[in-house]
Specification:
By secondary structure, the chain is α+β, with helices and mostly antiparallel strands. It has helices at residues 16-33, 57-68, 124-135, 145-155, 172-175, 204-217; strands at 2-9, 40-43, 51-53, 79-86, 92-99, 108-115, 139-143, 167-170, 185-188, 194-197. It has a ten-stranded antiparallel beta sheet, with helices on both faces. 39% of the residues are buried.
C-alpha cells in the first residue's frame, strides 16, 4: 500500500546548517520508526542516475550546499533534496523536501512516500508527528490515493490547499479553530500544534466530512498570498 505523509509551511529562510540538521533528524527518526525501509539511501538528482547516500550530518550538509550551488538555485524558492530508501522486500520510501526559502506563493514542504506490504502495520501517526516536530509546519496530513481522490471529487480540494487526511496536523492557530464537538482524537504536540486522528484506512468518507467541517470553521484557510508568514 502506498501512503503519503506530508507537512507544508510558508516562508522561513534558514542557513544550510539548519536545513541539514532538520534532514538528519528526519532520517534518524524515520529509521527508528520504519527500519524495514531504511537499510540504504540514495539521492535522486535532476540529471543523471541516483547515487548512494549516507544519512549522516556531514553528507546532508554537503548535499544541501551542493543543491545551493546549482546555477538555477534561488534562496527565495528554497533548497530541494530527494532521497530514496530501500530495505526489506516490499518496503520502499521516498523523502523529498523544499525548504529554507522565502517564496511568496509556493509552499515549502516535506513529503514521505512510503510503499509497504498491504498487511504491514505502519506507524502513520508517529511519522506525521515526526514531520511536525522536526519541520514545524503549518499543516500536514497522512493520505493515500483513495483519500486524495475523495477529497478532490467530493469536497472540492485542490492541490496546494491546506488539508488533512486520515491523520492531520494543525499548527497552533489552526488548532484553535477546530470545533469542540468534532469527532476526532486530538493530541497536543510540543509547540502548541495538534495531531488529529480522523479515520482508519479505507474510510475516505469520514475524512471528507472532517475536512469540510474544518474548512468551514476556518482551520484550513490558506495562507494569504503573497505569503508573509510561516504559519497561519
Amino acid at each position: 500500500m502506498r501512503r503519503v505523509v506530508r507537512g507544508f509551511w510558508g516562508p522561513r529562510p534558514e542557513p544550510a546548517e539548519a536545513l541539514a540538521d532538520r534532514w538528519r533528524r528526519t532520517l534518524d527518526g524515520f529509521a527508528e520508526l520504519v527500519p524495514q525501509a531504511a537499510d540504504a539511501w540514495s539521492q535522486v538528482h535532476g540529471n543523471g542516475p541516483a547515487t548512494a547516500f549516507t544519512s549522516d550530518g556531514d553528507a546532508l550538509l554537503g548535499a544541501v550546499r551542493t543543491a545551493q550551488s546549482a546555477a538555477d538555485w534561488s534562496d527565495l524558492t528554497g533548497t530541494g533534496l530527494r532521497l530514496v530508501g530501500t530495505g526489506a522486500p516490499g518496503w520502499e520510501a521516498e523523502i523529498s523536501g523544499l525548504a529554507g526559502g522565502a517564496p511568496e506563493f509556493l509552499l515549502q514542504s516535506l513529503a514521505i512516500i512510503l510503499h509497504a506490504p498491504d498487511e504491514a502495520v505502519v506507524p502513520e501517526e508517529a511519522l506525521l508527528s515526526l514531520v511536525a516536530r522536526v519541520w514545524e509546519p503549518d499543516f500536514g496530513d497522512v493520505s493515500d490515493d483513495d483519500v486524495l481522490d475523495a477529497l478532490e471529487d467530493d469536497a472540492g480540494y485542490s492541490v496546494g490547499d491546506p488539508v488533512v487526511g486520515r491523520t492531520g496536523y494543525l499548527s497552533p492557530a489552526r488548532a484553535a479553530l477546530v470545533p469542540e464537538d468534532l469527532e476526532v482524537v486530538r493530541e497536543p504536540l510540543p509547540g502548541g500544534g495538534e495531531l488529529l486522528s480522523i479515520a482508519p484506512p479505507g474510510d475516505s468518507a469520514s475524512v471528507v466530512r472532517v475536512y469540510q467541517r474544518l474548512r468551514a470553521a476556518g482551520a484550513l484557510a490558506p495562507l494569504p498570498r503573497p505569503m508573509d508568514r510561516t504559519v497561519l
